[in-house]
Design goal:
The protein has 89 residues and is α+β, with helices and mostly antiparallel strands. It has helices at residues 4-8, 11-31, 54-67; strands at 44-50, 70-76.
Length: 89
Amino acid sequence: MFGDRVDELVGEERATRWAQARAFIAEERSVRRPTSPFALSPIEAPVVYGQSDAGTMAPVVHHLHGKIPRLEVVTIPGADHHAHRVVTM
């Protein structure tokens, strides 16, 4: 996934990145279950994504609407896949 960039990391930075990668993988696995460990129907949740990512997100939003009836969908015009990570000052 990271290719040569991982090989360029050294020392503590490399160890930190690998720890973060393991935590990310564990988190992803924990949410990919056939059934939820808790009731989804009472949840009110926003899904925020970039407009340029609409093709990818459409099936995800459709799936989530079936699981979380009170889902709020927010699309950010001009943003891409990592719209949720943008920090403005």
